[in-house]
């Protein structure tokens, strides 16, 4: 990284800790586990075939990421076609910071009446924030050359996901944000970064501008074709723990405390799927790692994973969905070193409820994934 860029990175910090000179290295050189899934926006849930006009379009396309409002973040990649009238404004001409994909957000322009003047992206972390744990966060950003220059690009953490149908401004206090104008001239990429200590066990991360236009610094661009709004590309999002690493207390219902014996059965407590979907969501990975460790510690163990649903929907569909969810758990294990010979799976739909299907709480208990030990 050039010295000029290092100085710019330091000027974008907000938080209780300055960025030391050691962070002149690239993020790829900083050793730690990133707890942001799909951090470079390289993985898709669907086929990218066009542009986005609703937040749901972005949510349907980008794996694990979503638009928390009705505004429509943009994805850029090798198979995404930018409409000609947007391409003429320069959209999509920027190369990603790394890989082949990136996203773009409109972050300023409400006072000028621009539709979708505030766009955000949201993701569930691979594990919740740990109270008292120090973290380092960063993302890389580059400005659309014809757009305004602003500050306030930042990150906000929350316990619950945000889902609003309109394209509203989300007025929250971000943990880290750029206090100074983010220039990123000549299609360069620069970093918004900082440290913070977790004060709540948040599960979700949002990126955007959480301030009104009147509270955002802005610089106009001295060119006749300047746009009346601010648009920035985002890539390579990183969130990692800093030493000292705090121990997380093991709860009483943790699967690592379950007595293991042939014929015994236990429930995976923290397995998450979207409604009517069977792909494991990011925060399932913590529970899956615990199951993976159990399997590694007991190399002769053979298990059967059993999927269950509530009674909503057709019986045959529930059988299908429960089987696919059980299979997703087994596929994770197989992909992480557990032989297929040690895993089985089946779905039994709504045939074995734990509770009444007449209440939301009962149905939630009935939607579950269990592990049966076949051999030790």
Topology:
Layout: H1 3-11, H2 55-61, E1 65-66, E2 74-76, H3 84-87, E3 102-108, E4 121-124, E5 134-143, E6 149-150, E7 153-158, E8 176-177, E9 190-197, E10 204-209, E11 218-219, E12 230-241, E13 265-268, H4 284-297, E14 302-308, H5 315-335, E15 343-347, H6 360-366, E16 368-375
Parallel strand pairs: 14-15
Antiparallel strand pairs: 1-4, 2-3, 3-12, 4-10, 5-9, 5-12, 6-11, 7-8, 7-10, 13-16, 14-16
Characterise this structure.
The chain is 16% helix and 23% strand. With 376 residues, the protein is an alpha+beta fold. It folds into two domains: 3-241, Jelly Rolls (Sandwich); 255-375, OmpA-like domain (60s Ribosomal Protein L30, Chain: A, 2-Layer Sandwich). Helix 5 links the parallel strand 14 (302-308) and strand 15 (343-347).
Q: Helical content, roughly?
A: 10-25%
Alpha-beta content class: alpha+beta
The number of distinct β-strands equals: 16
Describe the strand arrangement of the main beta sheet, using strand numbers. Answer: 1-4-10-7-8
Q: Catalogue the unreliable spans.
A: 1-31
Average pLDDT score: 86
Instruction: Estimate nothing, just give the exact number of structural domains.
Output: 2
Give a summary of the structure in a few sentences.
By secondary structure, this protein is an alpha+beta fold.
């Amino acid at each position: 990284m050039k010295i000029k860029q290092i100085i710019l990175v330091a000027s974008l910090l907000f938080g209780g800790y300055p960025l030391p000179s050691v962070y002149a290295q690239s993020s790829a050189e900083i050793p730690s586990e990133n707890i942001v899934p799909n951090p470079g926006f390289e993985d898709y849930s669907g086929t990218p075939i066009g542009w986005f006009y609703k937040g749901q379009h972005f949510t349907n396309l980008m794996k694990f990421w979503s638009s928390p409002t009705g505004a429509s973040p943009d994805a850029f990649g090798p198979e995404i076609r930018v409409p000609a009238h947007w391409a003429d404004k320069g959209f999509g001409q920027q190369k990603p910071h790394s890989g082949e994909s990136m996203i773009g957000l409109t972050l300023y322009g409400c006072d000028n009446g621009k539709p979708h003047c505030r766009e955000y992206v949201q993701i569930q972390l691979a594990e919740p924030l740990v109270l008292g744990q120090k973290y380092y966060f960063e993302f890389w950003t580059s400005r659309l050359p014809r757009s305004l220059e602003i500050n306030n690009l930042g990150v906000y953490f929350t316990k619950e996901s945000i889902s609003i149908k309109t394209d509203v401004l989300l007025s929250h206090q971000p943990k880290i944000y750029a206090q100074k104008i983010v220039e990123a001239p000549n299609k360069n990429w620069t970093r918004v970064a900082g440290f913070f200590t977790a004060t709540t066990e948040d599960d979700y991360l949002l990126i955007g501008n959480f301030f009104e236009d009147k509270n955002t610094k802005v610089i106009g661009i001295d060119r006749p074709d300047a746009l009346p709004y601010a648009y920035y590309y985002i890539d390579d999002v990183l969130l990692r723990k800093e030493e000292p690493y705090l121990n997380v207390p093991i709860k009483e219902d943790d699967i690592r405390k379950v007595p293991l014996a042939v014929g015994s059965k236990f429930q995976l407590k923290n397995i998450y799927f979207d409604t009517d979907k069977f792909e494991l969501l990011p925060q399932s990975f913590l529970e899956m790692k615990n199951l993976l460790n159990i399997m590694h510690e007991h190399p002769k163990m053979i298990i059967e994973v059993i999927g269950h649903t509530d009674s909503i929907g057709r019986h045959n569909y529930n059988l299908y969905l429960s089987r696919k969810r059980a299979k997703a758990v087994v596929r994770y294990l197989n992909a992480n070193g557990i032989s297929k010979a040690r895993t089985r799976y089946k779905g039994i739909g709504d045939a074995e409820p734990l509770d009444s299907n007449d209440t939301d709480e009962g149905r939630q208990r009935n939607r579950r994934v269990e592990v049966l030990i076949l051999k030790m």
